[in-house]
Amino acid sequence: MRSVARNPFLWVLLTLLSVVFIGPLVVMFLTSFKTTQESQSVPPTIWPGEWTTRAYDVLLSSADNPILRWFFNSFAAATAHALLVVLTASMAGYALARMDFKFKNIIFAMIISTMFVPGFIFLMPNFLILDSFGWLDTLLAIVVPGAAGAFGVFFMRQFFLSLPKEFEESARIDGAGPFTTFFRVMLPNAVPAMVTLMVLSFLTNWNDFIWPLYVLFNDSSLTLPIGLTKLQGAYTIDYPVIMAGAVIASVPVLILYTFVQRFVIDGVASSGVKG
């Protein structure tokens, strides 16, 4: 391990990868503090010649672009969606991993098979269902659909398969029923997997563009990815304003991953132990 850590080619490779992934974020951040003229200069500059917060002032003070409202819509929808995904996926994954019932393998195979169906096929059926519920142009339209996805069920099933059976056997000896065993014994041991699934679900919903574009109509109901498209004019592009919007959209994601990266690594590592 020490010989690998001392390999100079490894550090060069890691440095190049860091530049590839972090470079665009740095350029985005610096561009948000440029003037409109400097952002369109040729050749382009990286460091702002004149620092200005005009882009953020425009975003936060414009009545036509309620970015704080869009931010709240995205955050509320992504959080509710992530919690709902974890609840449904953990219960289904536990049942498929640890309980014996008829047609269990067939049901699991059917759930997994939906992962191979293109998502665009479900756009119209889901739209019609939401229309019949009266949920169009509400946050429910982007929270509920996809909350019982196949990936979450598969992910949690794999994690529960990796847990020792002694946990359940001890709970049964103490007189615990299936629900008590699940909520008080198994779930506390599945925190890394649940946090990982929650983060992935949050990011998927936070970054989703196509589905909200179909089901959200009023400016006050839009999420951040849809709202940011309104910042681009038909004939002119204010790059600092667009980059400032992108910075605001990326900050929660970076903060979230900074705090939960340890759980994500543990959850991914543990969920692939058993098949």
Mean pLDDT: 85
What is the count of distinct domains?
Answer: 1
Structural class: mainly alpha
CATH architecture: Orthogonal Bundle
Secondary-structure element series: HHHHHHHHHHHHHHH
What is the CATH class designation? Answer: Mainly Alpha
Q: In terms of per-residue confidence, which ranges show pLDDT below 50 for 5 or more consecutive residues?
A: none
Measured as a percent range, the helix fraction is 55-70%
Shape: globular
CATH superfamily descriptor? MetI-like
Short description:
This protein has 275 residues and is mostly helical. It has helices at residues 2-5, 8-31, 36-39, 54-61, 67-98, 104-113, 123-133, 140-143, 150-162, 166-173, 178-189, 191-207, 210-215, 224-228, 239-271.
Description:
- The longest helix is centred in the C-terminal third of the chain and has 33 residues, at 239-271.
- The chain starts with a helix and ends with a helix.
- The chain has 15 helices and no strands.
- It has one domain (64-271): MetI-like fold.
- It has 275 residues and is mainly α.
Which keywords apply here?
275 residues; mainly alpha; MetI-like fold; 15 helices; 69% helix; globular
Chain-wise SSE layout:
Layout: H1 2-5, H2 8-31, H3 36-39, H4 54-61, H5 67-98, H6 104-113, H7 123-133, H8 140-143, H9 150-162, H10 166-173, H11 178-189, H12 191-207, H13 210-215, H14 224-228, H15 239-271
Helix pairs in contact: 2-15, 4-15, 5-9, 5-12, 6-9, 10-11, 12-15
